[in-house]
Fold this protein.
Amino acid sequence: MKKLKLFTLLSMFLILGTTAIGQTAKIETKMVGGAEMYPSKNIVENAVNSNDHTTLVAAVKAAGLVDVLSSEGPFTVFAPTNSAFEALPDGTVETLLKEENQNKLQSVLTYHVLAGDYEAADIVAAIKKGNGKATFTTVNGAEVSAMLDGDKVKLQDASGNVATVTVADVDQSNGVIHVIDTVILP
């Protein structure tokens, strides 16, 4: 009887230990812009800590989208870096951040967002299913195309601008972020 109790106790410990280890493995943080991105935090809570996304955060605030991107979601955000914004023509960012251009800024930012949680594997699967190209409808209603260049996912906007995903699958409590190197435009 003692052996049975010991066996039961050990079995329970192993099952609980395995469950805990499995749960720990799911809670993976990634470094973005010098900061850890925590899957337990939402898109905005994580983005504000990234040194590479200060322009994006300022734009989200100016566009009045903080509450939306902090909500339950899920969302997939293609997050342009500061250098992506700096590559836009001179004065573009400053003009977009003006209060009178809030609607245009919202349009640009929501073009970087998909409704739903699209991990990199989901996007790659859609590209393969589409024989090398997948089209996604963004939150602003316009379409963006995705394709592969080797093992890199690329996004192309309606004007032909191409962005590369540089960091994929940064899990958030309300979706996922994929860091991109170019601002895409509707």
